[in-house]
Amino acid sequence: MASHRRPKQQSRARVTVLTTAAAAAVVLSANAANAAPKLSKDQVKAKVDKLYEEAEQATEKYNGAKEKQQKLQKEISTIQDNVARGQQDLNKLRDGLGSLATSQYRTGGIDPSVQLFLSSNPDDFLDKASTLDQLSAQQVDALKKIQDKQRELAQERAEATEKLKDLSSTRTELENKKKEVQGKLADAQKLLNTLTAKEKADLAAQQQRADRSSSERVHLGDTPPASGRAGAAFSAAQSQIGKPYVYGATGPSSFDCSGLTSWAYAQAGVSIPRTSEAQANIGPHLSMSQLQVGDLVFFYGDLHHVGLYAGNGQVLHAPHTGAVVRYEAMADMPFQFGVRVN
Questions:
Q1: Which of 49, 170, 272, 280 has the smallest number of Cβ neighbours within 10 A?
Q2: What does the pLDDT read at residue 217?
């Protein structure tokens, strides 16, 4: 008689393992199919250049916040010094009124009005017109001086409080912009790390050729040479050719774009603002045909990049992270206008 045994069932655990493995295989297969292809060297360079441009935009905002922070710190320090001196003056005025009261006591008792003042707020006290009638001219003058000094100190303290709040928010903005710059640069480095050693070497060589050839190919042509302060600033910038771009740097070992221009003009004895946006507002705007060597030249719609006009359609500037101070054709960037420093 044939045996009619039921076929042995797979254990539930084994079925679960097989199902999970099959699902994982499907996911891995789908991920492999959808994985983005490896970017070419040129594609990586294009993305890195874009990140460098965005980092420079953030750098100029960072520079602005840093400059504002330094300005606020100086203003707050000045106000605090004024308040301290004002308090000393106020104390002297009060001491003077106290001496007056002592003198009155010696000659027949303290005037009730002075006695009242010494134990009350002079603002409230002086608001009472009837009281003024009881004071001598000397006392009125002393009380008004105290009242004016108290109001002055109150205003200065209120101003200091507002500036301290502004300083706090500026510090937050500064830190945020710093993180944004560092984030852009980190993203750029991650992209560069996807390249092979040979591709990295090729890009480095390409950058070196650009840095080297830029200084070899510039010719002033028919452009008049720079003179005066513009000439001195341009010569100073020329002396920094080959120095690396570093965000937030103002020289002399490294520069960002506006750091180079502000440093160069400082060597010529001219103080200009720190950021490219602020530098763009220090004089009338010039067209390409109006430019002279040493003029400031601005690029991009938000004016986040600035350099010095070198003549013959060239700019001397600190380009971006990974590059050095060099000459470059202005046609390589969207020129906006120039500004002459007077």
A1: 49
A2: 52
Residue 45 CA to residue 188 CA, distance in Å, equals: 9
Average pLDDT per consecutive 10 residues, the chain (342 residues; last block may be shorter): 51 46 46 63 92 94 94 94 90 76 53 51 52 62 85 91 92 93 94 92 84 58 70 96 96 97 97 96 95 96 96 95 94 96 90
Return all residues near 17 (Cβ < 8 A) that are at least 6 apart: none
Is 285 catalytic? The answer is no
Q: At what angle do helices 41-106 and 257-267 cross, to 10 degrees?
A: 60
Backbone angles phi, psi at 328, to 5 degrees: -155, 150
For the question of whether the overall pTM of this predicted structure is more than 0.85, the answer is: no
Based on the residue annotation, tell me whether 257 is a catalytic residue of this protein.
yes
Question: Can you read off the two tokens belonging to residue 145?
Answer: 């001086």
Q: Which of 4, 219, 317, 320 is catalytic?
A: 317
- Is 219 catalytic? The answer is no
Q: What is the pLDDT of residue 267?
A: 97
Q: Which two tokens stand for residue 164?
A: 């301290």
Q: Active-site residue among 4, 285, 305, 320?
A: 305
Q: What is the DSSP string of 149-218?
A: HHHHHHHHHHHHHHHHHHHHHHHHHHHHHHHHHHHHHHHHHHHHHTS-HHHHHHHHHHHHHHHHHHHHH-
Residue 151 near residue 83, CB atoms below 8 Å: no
